[in-house]
Specification:
- The protein has 436 residues and is α/β, with parallel strands linked by helices.
- It is built from 17 helices and twelve strands.
- The strands form three sheets. The chain has a six-stranded parallel beta sheet, sandwiched between helices.
- Strand 5, helix 6 and strand 6 form a beta-alpha-beta unit.
- The longest helix is centred in the first third of the chain and has 25 residues.
- The termini are far apart.
């Protein structure tokens, strides 16, 4: 019987989906699911949900909850990380400060992504070091952003077995299938790079290259299409395809933050239909979702068991594969040990991996096409300095990381970047103690 721990379980929507995904597998229903969060109220809510699910469906799953991380980790087999260090408030502050300086906010890359990583990486490493004491053979499965930086830190500064997971590779492949006009279930694809910036090196339908279908769909001037024709088109992704020859998995706007081409000026943002992040709208949506979720838990609603969740299903499937030996290919964030040969050794790469009872086995990629590897290296430089700066508590390395960020450098001068970094450090002093 596996012990599965969720650290950061107070993130209701994600934890709810993950618990559902675990219970979808009959072989995992005798597991122990331990829910851990430092905030009691959201922890109580997700615990009530988990217990209701188990009772409603007559499962024997054991549900535990605690605010004590070390107690939760004792004897764990799998530790799922969904933390947001400091909660939503520091991210809201980061967002306001970066917007004042004319730089967009993102939780993966750029100046805000680095500071989000500074807060989260410290906790990720604390979790991993606790695991070394209390569950040294367990798998650490990271979902927290910035995934590449968190996973890089765990891979480099801990002995724990770890992977990072993200749904973007499959989500992007579903969009490609839609655009190619073929059923997703009949496609095969091979996607490799770094988190939120991987390339579909192959996309096939019934064994045949499906890229010609996509070239046909997007031939000519896409920007001249009508608004109705552009309704489901990501113009940034299409531009990347036309310029570099491959689609990326950086949907939901992520790819815009890795490069200087799409967010540096208002007129460019308008051209590519990029907008400033609607923080107020997102906060209001979370309030609505939490209210509905609470009513469902304490009402007569019966929660279904299905595999329709797109965010967390990969973690549940990975655990199922390692527990049962059912082999699956899942895109994972892992340490680059000669997997992608023209990206730096030791960085964090997102590549297809075979997952089975023996663990996680990354697939060899070799060289990415040179035009695909080059822009990724720009981001790897930022990630490397951010990880080192976090571990060493070195403010200068954090400044250097952000100075090398392509989008930030396209908007601000060196002195302006220095001012922005200092302001963010001051605003985050509660969470970033000891930096010099």
């Amino acid at each position: 019987m596996a012990k599965i721990v969720i650290v950061g379980a107070g993130s209701h929507i994600f934890a709810k989906d993950f618990i559902t995904d675990v219970l979808f597998h009959p072989e995992l229903r005798n597991s122990t699911i331990t829910l851990m969060d430092i905030a009691q109220e959201p922890l109580d809510l997700i615990t009530a949900f988990a217990k209701k699910m188990v009772t409603q469906h007559g499962f024997k799953t054991k549900i535990e909850s605690t605010t004590n991380r070390r107690e939760a980790l004792e004897g764990a087999d799998y530790v799922l990380c969904t933390i947001r260090a400091g909660g939503a408030r520091p991210s809201e502050i980061d967002r306001a400060i970066t917007k004042k300086h004319g730089v967009q906010w993102d939780d993966t890359m750029g100046v805000a992504g680095v500071f989000y990583g500074l807060r989260n990486m410290q906790v990720v490493l604390d979790i991993c070091h606790d695991m070394e004491k209390y569950c040294p053979d367990a798998w650490f499965i990271n979902y927290a952003n910035p995934n590449a930086m968190n996973s890089w830190a765990a891979n480099t500064y801990s002995h724990i077995k770890s992977i990072g997971l993200c749904p973007n590779s499959e989500s992007g492949a579903r969009r490609l299938a839609r655009d190619a006009g073929v059923p997703f279930e009949e496609t095969a694809w091979f996607c490799a790079g770094i988190n939120h910036f991987s390339w579909y090196l192959e996309f096939k339908w019934h064994g045949e290259d499906a890229y010609p279908r996509l070239r046909e769909k997007y031939k000519g001037d896409v920007f001249s299409w009508s608004d109705s024709a552009l309704k489901n088109v990501d113009l940034v992704e299409v531009e990347m395809f036309k310029r570099f020859g491959y689609f990326t998995n950086g949907g939901a706007g992520h790819i815009s933050f890795f490069l200087p081409y799409f967010m540096s000026k208002p007129e460019i943002m308008k051209k590519y239909r990029r907008t400033w992040y609607d923080a107020d709208g997102a906060a209001k949506q979370r309030v609505v979702e939490d209210k509905i979720f609470t009513q469902q838990i304490y009402g007569d609603y019966k929660f279904p068991i299905n595999d329709e969740n797109r965010w967390s299903v990969f973690a549940a499937n990975a655990i199922h594969s390692m527990e049962t030996g059912t082999a699956r290919r899942i895109n994972c964030n892992v340490k680059n040990t000669g997997i992608i040969t023209n990206l730096p050794e030791g960085c964090c790469v997102e590549v297809p991996c075979l997952v089975d009872k023996e663990g996680v086995h990354p697939c060899y990629v070799g060289d990415l096409p040179p035009q695909c590897a080059a822009p990724i290296r720009l981001s790897v430089n930022v990630q490397e300095l951010a990880v080192q700066g976090t571990v060493e508590k070195n403010k200068n390395k954090i400044f250097q990381a952000i100075m090398l960020d392509p989008l930030t450098g396209a908007i601000l001068s060196i002195d302006e970047i220095q001012d922005l970094v200092e302001e963010l450090f001051q605003a985050n002093k509660e969470y970033l103690k000891g930096f010099k």
